[in-house]
Design goal:
Elements: E1 7-11, H1 22-37, E2 46-50, H2 51-58, E3 61-63, H3 64-74, E4 79-83, H4 89-102, E5 105-110, H5 124-129, E6 139-140, H6 141-148, H7 161-166, E7 174-178, E8 192-194, H8 200-209, E9 215-217, E10 241-244, E11 247-249, H9 255-270, E12 275-279, E13 302-303, H10 316-321, H11 329-341, H12 361-373, E14 382-386
Parallel strand pairs: 2-12, 4-5, 4-8, 5-7, 8-9
Antiparallel strand pairs: 1-14, 2-14, 3-11, 6-7, 10-11, 12-13
Helix pairs in contact: 1-9, 3-4
């Protein structure tokens, strides 16, 4: 029996610059690692590449001046409402600076006691003690300070985000309020930018129903080039990230062509069918701060066809504790393998599949890659995941470990 199941290797690449052939660099990195680190490639291994690597090579950037121009094109008005942004220096602060430059007055509505992905803006117990009802109450910034003290600092970053967001203002033109009904913004303006990520379609629908006039979301800003800028036709500013003081990096474009090119290059060199994906934020929740880390619109903006769908698995511990529990030790292993080989196309609703939540493969694999590569100074933006599609019935004797160390390497 093969003793190792899923095996994850994070791979170091050269520093990628704008204009680099990132597909070639990724494949060269993999081939060098195979040769130098002495392991083997298999069919259905997964190669995951972080989105920032691809976007940087593409030069997919926008300046704040270009964002300002794109905002004015969508909102030819003097004042604007902005609802439900996440609390983030890297994700929203620069966008807010561009918004403040584009309009004479910005009414910024923050959800509470936390934002869409769980970043807290106030202490929940303090909120309860103050008698605040988050379902109905609108708070001004003055209410916020008076009822909840001089400020609340994020438990991880130590930042007072209300104070930070006020510093994005031009001539003190940002007015901050707090509510969980997006229609609360309409007391100030009927022209609204929905700045939330995963709930943006609902937010826009509620705003229009409540009488808003111009309503757009961040995925509708910078969907085409502005004075030669980068852009993203599907996600616009969603998935953008701090690049420099006056510049944002956008989500990579043309991702499908990229992953298929990498897959084909690997196939030509090794004969192996490796699945390839681009990943951004993982879809996991921090157990301490309760923050859902998915600030990107999706975990995987592009992936090869073999990564579509959800896992089809049986729950081994259920079988071991119930149906197969009476078998002698000498027989249970083969009986387990037989049951796996005979599993149906779908096991949804059957007890033997309970606990194997049908999450999308790309969400699971992208989260694994994100946790493995890190976002700091590890220098490993490419992750090779092996054995993910194996199960207990698979062993090396079935030919799953054919070497790729070929003469061409």
């Amino acid at each position: 029996m093969r003793r190792i199941g899923v095996h994850v290797r994070s791979l170091r690449t050269p520093i990628i610059r704008e204009g680099d052939d990132v597909a070639r660099i990724v494949v060269d990195t993999l081939m060098s690692s195979l040769r130098e680190d002495g392991y083997e490639l298999r069919d259905r291994d997964v190669l995951a590449i972080t989105e920032s690597l691809v976007a940087r090579a593409q030069g997919n950037y926008v300046t704040l001046d270009q964002v300002e121009k794109a905002l004015k094109a969508q909102f030819p008005v003097a004042e604007i409402g902005v609802v439900f942004p996440i609390l983030s220096r890297n994700r929203f602060f620069l966008i807010l600076k561009a918004i403040a430059r584009a309009f004479s007055r910005v009414y910024l509505l923050l959800s509470y006691p936390y934002d869409e992905v769980g970043n807290p803006i106030m202490d929940m117990e303090q909120m309860d003690e103050a008698g605040i009802n988050p379902g109905t109450d609108y708070l001004t910034e003055e209410d916020y300070r008076r009822l909840l003290g001089n400020g609340f600092k994020h438990p991880f970053t130590g930042i007072d985000y209300v104070e930070l967001y006020k510093t994005a203002a031009v001539n003190d033109n940002i007015v901050i309020g707090f509510a969980n009904d997006p229609a609360a913004i309409l007391r100030f303006t009927r022209d609204v930018l929905a700045a939330d990520i995963h709930s943006r379609e609902r937010t826009k629908r509620l705003l229009r129903k409540a009488g808003a006039r111009l309503v757009h979301s961040l995925d509708e800003i910078c969907t085409a080039p502005v004075d030669g800028s980068g852009y993203h036709p599907q996600f616009g500013l969603l998935g953008s990230n701090f690049a420099a003081e006056e510049k944002l990096k956008l989500f990579p474009r043309d991702g499908q062509a990229f992953v298929e090119e990498v897959q084909e290059r690997i196939r030509m060199l090794t004969g192996k069918n490796v699945e390839v994906m681009i990943y951004g934020d993982g879809a996991f929740k921090d157990p301490v701060a309760k923050i859902w880390e998915l600030a990107d619109p999706v975990v995987a903006p592009a992936y090869t066809s073999g990564l579509s769908g959800t896992p089809n698995e049986v729950k081994l511990k259920y079988l071991a504790d119930s149906e197969l529990s009476g078998l002698p030790q000498s027989e249970i292993e083969e009986a387990m393998k037989k049951r796996i080989r005979e599993k149906k196309t779908t096991l949804v609703g059957q007890m033997e599949a309970q606990g194997t939540t049908p999450r999308r493969l790309t969400d699971l694999l992208g989260s694994l890659a994100d946790l493995s590569s890190g976002s700091g100074d590890k220098g490993t933006p490419v992750v090779l995941i092996q054995g993910y599609f194996d199960d207990y019935s698979v062993d090396d004797s079935a030919g799953n470990l054919a070497s790729v160390v070929q003469k061409a390497i």
